[in-house]
Amino acid sequence: MKRHAIALAALLSCGAAVAQDGLYVRGAFNGWGTAAPLAAKGDGIYQADVEVMPGNHAFKLGTGDWSAEWVIDPDKSTSVKPDTDYRLERQSGPETFLFVRQPGTYRFTIDTRDKAAPRLRVARIADARRDTGIDPHAGHAAQASQQWPTWDGKVETVRYSTPDANAPLRRYVQSSTMLLRDPGPQHVAYAEEDGLPRVRSGNLAFDALFAMAGREMRQNSVSQINDGNYNGGNAIDCACFATGEKWAYVWTRDLSYAADLGLAMLDPQRVRNSLDFKLSGWRPDIKVAPQVPGSPDGLQVVQDTGSGGSWPVSTDRLTWALAAEETLRTLPALERAPFAARALKALSNTIEIDRVAAFDSVTGLYTGEESFLDWRDQSYAAWIPGDLASMASSKALSTNVVYYQALNLAAKLAREHKDTQKAQRYAGWALDLKRAINTHLWLPDTGMYSSLTAGHLDNAPLHKFDWLGQALAIVSGVADERQARAILAHYPHGPLGAPMIWPQQIGAPVYHNRSSWPFVTAYGLRAAAQGRNVAVADVAYASLMRGAAVNLSNMENLEWLSGQPLLLDENNPDLSGPVINSRRQLWSVGGYLGMVIGNVFGVQTLDDAIALRPFITSKLRRDTFGGTNEIALHDLRLHGKRIDVRLQLPAASEQDGYYTVERIVLNGKPVKDTIRLPELADTNRIEIVLGKLVAGQQDIRRVNANPYEEASAVFGPREPSIDRLERASSGPVTLQIGANGNAANVRYRVYRDGKLVADELPAGAWRDPKASATSCYAVEAQFTDSGNVSHHSQPRCVDAGIEIPVTDARVQSNLQATAPDARFTRPHLKDWGQPEDRFAIDGIRIEQAGDYRLQVRYHNGANQVNLGISGGVKWLALKDSTGKVVAQGVIQLPHAPLLKQDTPSVYSTPLAARVKAGSYRLEMTDFYNMSYLESNRSFTGAGGAEPSNRFDIYGVRLLRVK
Questions:
Q1: Among 66, 68, 45, which residue's Cα sits nearest to residue 121?
Q2: How many Å separate Cα 745 from the centre of its chain?
Q3: How far is the C-alpha of 540 from the C-alpha of 497, rounded, in Å?
Q4: Measured distance CA(637)–CA(20) in Å, rounded
Q5: How far apart are CA 99 and CA 28, in angstroms?
Q6: Strand ranges (E), 620-700
Q7: Please, what is the angle between helix 534-551 and helix 204-219, to 10°?
Q8: 493 and 700 Cβ atoms separated by less than 8 Å
Q9: Which pLDDT score, from 0 to 100, does residue 2 have?
Q10: CA pair distance 808, 800, nearest whole angstrom
């Protein structure tokens, strides 16, 4: 969503503005789309009727391209009550919230009769339509039902039926007693489709849910995509995969994980089209900075809009490689070759650029936000949204594992294209990265990898964990067998599955926090099958099937303790969620299809073969396939060949374990568990006979709590603060640890320069006798009962640093300083950053040699902190008195909060420099950001019509850290 302030002509009436701008009611209840236009009713009244289900729904009033917004408060979110008038401001701002207890039709009315003070009123006018009472299963010959217990002691019933169980392609009806997330009937009808595989398992529900996933894949197979941020909200032609019912665009990570999980096997051409849509070269009018490596056209993977203005605050664009590898394995040979060449070029350019812009040579890790966990308030410290440079300089497990996989694919493609130099380069980088991940992110005391490190001035690995990162580390081979066993045994699981992050964040609603995402559960299942952990696999199987069954769709996410698509908290409405939840979410669909094909039947694609590795647990055999001794997957199509897989099941057992493969027969001939593609005929029958029950790994960590309580068993404390930092003349430093609202069952740990130096402290003063003049500190909190740990406080350093404001006589720039005003209370160089702009500071005197961190003090208000493509990305160089460069590199200046009054300036990511005493010159020049790419020309916000890599400069800080 585009959120910049707009200027309306002084003579334009409010009513005319509504008509001209085409305002819509856009919110979580309609996927932020344009299905609810505000229609003129006469006399300055505009209305839209919207069907809304229970929830605490974020919404805004905006145009189709988000070029105009009307909000209640530009500075903070507001909750509206029905039948109450609220004055509107005609500018951008945070979302407004509507809390709904009962499903109904709500009328949104804008009254513009007072042109100086337009007003909003929301009123409930009718009940939402429900089922008519007609049984949708009536007359169907085959019927089945499932009982799914709920967290609060109730039971939800799901029914399935088909009019003809013997039909080659069945039609199904599925109904659920659970109140659905979105308006509509409590049942859904779908059918098996020619060209897609189908299952016959003796379990109508299992067959039906697989068919539903195939149908939802087809529903997401579109000829046009659209998003309000692009092309003015108009459709874009693309034979692609849309992301879901409420996400009608192609997003890099969603597509890539979905394809890797299953979609590339079933529709490689459409995946290839979608992957190609997420590649771009330079705009033709761009003059690329000399420090930017890669081919002249700049072909690279696009990082989607997001935190701080996108890349390189976020760097998980290389998830693209996961999908590309699976697609290369399944594309027809004639289509594979050109795509392989294009993939190598794009991967090579992206890898080389990111090595310059997002690689920390000290740790050997890549910087950037956690992959997919891209809502800062949900999974980072509460102070991070105001200091995104600290998120940008942190290192995330999931993102680094993605780099590892991308480097391996690039090396493999380089070998294929006879480029020995690149092959050796990328293979070496991959090996080094694997070592770095295991050196800096593995926490032996927890038996898991840290999800992320703190940012600059701290850098310590945090006691924070995420299921996607752990699972990717296992399936990629970054974790060895010992580590994989430890992860599977130690990562917590609730009654209905694993949470996405651990522990949960206090005070944040359900989305990434307090949630279970089916696609991540599918990766957890992959990891469990690879590690032969029966207990973890059983929870994952049940979680995926239950979620699709009771919701009548493969949902985006669920509250993790209750399994609800919406946990409505009337006492704390701001904590209700998931705050948005889309049906037929693409990666959830891919995860379900992959579960059945890749885990149950065990069909997995290799570069020139298929592997057969079914993972049937005794519980799955007993509970899901208890009525049959054979299950079958029909009409799986790979490389133009048809494959039927029949799995012969042993007798059911009450003991826990998994069944080993006894023998495999291909077209009547015994084969091993890997079949090369030339061995396949046009039509194939594969029989897999399962034999001995093996115990496997049974270890699993189980946790539980009331989903409405912020219990210490499942939550971490709030991160503390360092309220005061003082150094005595004799040397010791005193910290004042602020509890930040934590209860008495919390103790505190102090880190100095990223190393733990004190533990089990109460809040209050703590004295460090071993401090130096350059020490930097951070503090974390820990619950004494559960051991769950908070994020770190914002770091503070003993040295105040050398501050040089833009008014200093040594500053050289082609721009003149702008005087302060109510919003910006310090002088600054406004909108600096055009490629031809100059900024330098000459004659900087360094009196003490040491390690320094050089940061630009700035403000970037090009877009909000969670949006856009206009994060500042520049090249900073420090030169000595002879003109020799002593330090240089990319610095980031992400979007920062923009207030109506006294907007704070913030610091960029640092440039590290080891310097001697002397005189120095600092120069800042252009690099690039995502707005320099041709594919973002149609972006509606800053950086669309023309590149935007601009911000306000307040000065520079040189901080000595050693």
A1: 45
A2: 32
A3: 6
A4: 51
A5: 12
A6: 630-638, 641-648, 658-666, 669-671, 674-676, 683-694
A7: 70
A8: yes
A9: 31
A10: 18
Mean pLDDT, residues 137-141 taken together: 96
Residue-level pLDDT at 16: 64
Note the pLDDT of residue 649. 98
Residue with tokens 């390690």: 851
- Which pLDDT score, from 0 to 100, does residue 130 have? 67
> Which residues are CB-contacts of 842 (< 8 A; sequence separation ≥ 6)?
810, 812, 921
Q: d(Cα 864, Cα 894) in Å, to the nearest integer?
A: 10
Alpha helix (H) residue ranges in 10-162: 14-21
Amino acid at 810: R
Half-sphere exposure of 111 (CA within 13 A, CB side): 12
Torsion of CA 883, 887, 889, 892, to 10 degrees: -110
d(CA 449, CA 440): 9
Are 524 and 492 contacting, i.e. CB atoms less than 8 angstroms apart?
no
Q: Pick the more confident residue, 808 or 15.
A: 808
Round to whole Å and give the CA distance between 396 and 366: 8
Residue 22: alpha-carbon gap to chain centroid: 31
Mean pLDDT of the chain: 94
Can you give the pLDDT at residue 104?
Answer: 87
Backbone angles phi, psi at 542, to 5 degrees: -65, -40
- The 10s digit of each residue's pLDDT in 32-73 is 888 899 999 999 999 999 998 888 889 999 998 888 888 999
- Provide DSSP, 252-306: HHHHHHHIIIIIHHH-HHHHHHHHHHTEE-B-TT----TT--S-TT--EEPPPS-
Residue 335's identity, in one-letter code, is: E
Confidence of residue 7 (pLDDT cuts 50, 70, 90): very low
Strand pairing class (69-70; 55-62): antiparallel
Name residue, tokens 């664009």.
Answer: 317
Rg (CA), the chain: 28
pLDDT of residue 127: 80
pLDDT at residue 76 is higher than 90: no
Instruction: For residue 735, give the amino acid letter.
Output: L
Cβ burial, residue 286 (10 Å; 0-12/13-18/19+): middle
Whether the per-residue pLDDT at 8 is higher than 60: the answer is: no
Q: 222: which residues sit within 8 A by CB, 6+ positions away?
A: 238, 239, 240, 241, 242, 248
Q: Please give the average per-residue pLDDT across 291-311, as a whole number.
A: 97
**For the segment 766-812, what is each residue's pLDDT rounded down to a tens digit?**
999 999 999 999 999 999 999 999 999 999 999 989 999 999 999 99
Q: Which burial class, exposed, middle or buried, applies to 177 when counting CB atoms under 10 A from its CB (0-12, 13-18, 19+)?
A: middle
Q: Quick one: which H or E segment has residue 424?
A: helix 420-440
Nearest to 452 by CA among 438, 444, 441: 441
Q: How many residues does this entry show for the chain? A: 962
**Kind and range of the H or E element at 348?**
helix 333-357
pLDDT(20) > 70? no
Q: Which residues contact 316 (CB under 8 A, 6 or more apart)?
A: 252, 253, 303, 368, 369, 370, 371, 372, 398, 399, 402
* 119 φ, ψ (degrees, to nearest 5): -130, 150
List the one residue out of 634, 728, 650 whose CA is nearest residue 689: 650
SS3 state at 440: helix
What is the rounded CA–CA span in Å between residue 949 and residue 632? 56
On whether the pTM is more than 0.85, the answer is yes
Q: What is the pLDDT of residue 183?
A: 85
Q: CA geometry: angle at 602 spanning 599 and 608, to 5°? A: 125
For residue 6, pLDDT beyond 90: no
Q: Give the separation between CA 134 and CA 130, rounded to whole angstroms.
A: 11
CB burial readout 113-125, b (16+ within 10 A) else e: eeeeebbbbbebe
